[in-house]
């Protein structure tokens, strides 16, 4: 298993922005995001939900897809630079194959650092977005962060692959809706426990275009403790404080143990005598 980066020994503060985006109104959402970044300027990272830039929709998504050099992002990027605060937010991103459901990363210098396009699409997303084919770990000021989007976290292999590739922090942005709220509360904790890595999970809240989103944004420690919890009642911003690298105090190193060969599966009847 990869060792922690030798220089990584630091506190890390994350602001979880559990928002209810305005539907199909990028300018309004950008202004709200900038206000939050300004208000939480002391955070190392502010995380917004899946498709937080446009609101969650699977209708006419090409009209909402942004370009990497979209001038409308300039003020948000400037806020990141001014406060030395990195930002992760969800957006429809224009690609050569069509719009993808993406996580956009702006670093603490205000630079568009990277993007991750959602690999596991859910329901009507298959007709609205192009699935990503590459998982992404971004380096935010020496912190390797593995990115996931909503349905991705329901597949343990995604988080495991990110953790074994060197992610020290898992960050998931989501637009999880009723009746699946309890599912993500389980998956969000499980991904942290089974990989021995803290997990930041940020979800939308309130009634959207079609679905009612369930909130439940949280920071989970490698021991499954909720270090921050936004609840499922209202739009809000909560802070989570981490010391990185973070490891379980009592549990075995599951990543190390995962190199143990898995026994083969036997199928069919057997007789016990």
Summarize the structure.
By secondary structure, the protein is α/β, with parallel strands linked by helices. The protein has 6 helices and 14 strands.
Secondary structure class reads alpha/beta
Largest sheet: 6 strands, mixed
Any idea how many domains?
1
User: C-alpha Rg, in Å?
Assistant: 19 Å
Mean pLDDT level: 96
How much of the residues is beta strand, in percent? 25-35%
Question: Could you say what the CATH topology is called?
Answer: Nitrilase/N-carbamoyl-D-aminoacid amidohydrolase
Shape: globular
CATH homolog superfamily: Carbon-nitrogen hydrolase
Largest sheet: spatial strand order? 5-4-3-2-1-14
Low-confidence stretches: none
N to C succession of SSEs: EHEHEEEHEEHEHEEEEEEH
Kindly state the percentage of residues in helix: 10-25%
Labels describing this entry:
6-stranded mixed sheet, globular, Nitrilase/N-carbamoyl-D-aminoacid amidohydrolase, 273 residues, 21% helix, 14 strands, alpha/beta
Kindly describe this structure.
There is one protein chain. This protein has helices spanning 26-39, 74-83, 125-128, 156-164, 181-195, 254-257; strands spanning 10-18, 45-47, 86-95, 98-106, 112-117, 137-140, 143-149, 169-174, 199-203, 205-207, 212-214, 218-220, 226-229, 236-244. With 273 residues, the chain is an alpha/beta fold. It has one domain (14-257): Nitrilase/N-carbamoyl-D-aminoacid amidohydrolase, CATH 3.60.110. Helix 1 links the parallel strand 1 and strand 2. The radius of gyration is 19 Å and the shape is globular. The mean pLDDT is 96.
